[in-house]
Design a protein that fits this description.
Number of strands: 3
Number of helices: 12
Order of helices and strands: HEHHHEHHHEHHHHH
CATH architecture: Up-down Bundle
Strand content: under 5%
Helix content: over 70%
Structural class: mainly alpha
Largest sheet: 3 strands, mixed
CATH class: Mainly Alpha
Radius of gyration: 24 Å
Mean pLDDT: 80
Strand order of the largest sheet: 2-1-3
């Protein structure tokens, strides 16, 4: 109620990525294809791991959770952005804006912790292979997954708690394609310097802790792999390179945005696109192209799906044909 009494802004105007009509049409077509690729790519990994019993291992259990987060992370703002490319006036309600910020930090914080969980999984698999299944049991996996979502929820809730009491009584233009917390805070009708510092401290601390944990984990793993046999090292390095690539792609934009969170550089908009759209698209590509087991399982799944589709089509055609024949016989 306090927010309603002190705020007159009921909606925000999003400037989007460009004011050029030709570019917006091009962006509409391009991002529609990219978003379809995100959903289909991550859904394919999810279905492949679910239906292939050979992939029912802790590593792939964590991988399908990463795919779920990526699909939702790409969906909290991308569909609206795609539709807005066809609109002259791009607006979003106050609660819609609040929801976008909440889910961005919820999913971003959860994915950071999930990447840490995946690093722990790789550490156990490579450094303690004989005890891997006993250590990474369902109880431990459930605990790691619950911790990831809990940290994401606490992180997002702590950020959004400050937003509820901020008055918005004047400027309502957000120079982005979605409601980004640093940009929206600047529009409040009060001095938000201390709040800006809290946002930096909260997001920065979570990012720093996760990054240090990942750095230590992969350093220990790489040191251990170097003393293994050549055949085992090659496979381990292939898996590690995929994980390290995903971590780099995920953390690099976050670090840049929150080191200079209240700057007006247009590069922030580009990094936001990369963080929310291209990273969820690249993750399934990286994990499939560098993993022979996943590629083989995907080929098997697609062949089964194609075979099922052809058999279903043939069965449907036979039913229609028999019905037509029976109808012709009854007519005569």
């Amino acid at each position: 109620m306090e927010r309603v009494n002190h705020s007159v802004v009921s909606e925000f105007i999003l400037l989007g990525l460009s004011k050029s009509q030709n570019l917006q049409i091009l962006f509409f077509l391009g991002f529609s294809v990219v978003y379809a690729g995100i959903v289909l790519g991550n859904l394919l990994i999810l279905l492949t791991v679910t239906f292939d019993s050979r992939l029912h291992t802790p590593m792939y259990f964590l991988l399908i959770n990463l795919s779920c987060i990526d699909m939702i992370l790409a969906s909290f703002a991308t569909p609206k952005m795609i539709v807005d490319f066809l609109r002259k006036r791009k607006t979003i309600s106050w609660w819609g804006c609040y929801s976008q910020m909440f889910f961005m930090h919820l999913l971003g914080g959860s994915e950071m912790m999930l990447l840490v969980a995946m690093a722990i999984d790789r550490y156990v698999a490579i450094c303690k292979p004989l005890h891997y299944m006993s250590i990474m049991n369902p109880r431990v996996l459930g605990g790691l997954l619950l911790s990831s979502y809990t940290v994401g929820f606490v992180h997002s809730s702590s950020q959004m708690a400050f937003m509820l009491n901020l008055p918005f009584c004047g400027p309502n233009v957000v120079d982005s394609f979605f409601c980004d917390l640093p940009l929206v805070i600047k529009l409040a009708c009060k001095d938000t310097y201390m709040l800006q510092l809290l946002v930096i401290a909260d997001s920065g601390l979570l990012s720093l802790v996760c990054f240090l944990l990942l750095l230590v984990s992969y350093t220990v793993i790489i040191h251990s792999v170097r003393h293994r046999a050549a055949s085992g090292s090659a496979k381990a390095f292939s898996t590690l390179s995929a994980h390290i690539t995903v971590v780099t792609l995920f953390f690099a934009p976050c670090v840049f945005i929150y080191v200079w969170p209240f700057s007006r550089y247009s590069v922030d908009k580009i990094l936001s696109v990369f963080y929310t759209i291209f990273t969820p698209l690249l993750n399934p590509i990286i994990y499939t192209l560098r993993n022979q087991e996943v590629k083989a399982a995907i080929k098997k799944f697609l062949l089964l799906f194609l075979s099922f589709y052809l058999n279903s089509s043939q069965l449907t055609y036979s039913i229609i044909l028999n019905s037509s024949v029976q109808y012709s016989d009854s007519t005569f």
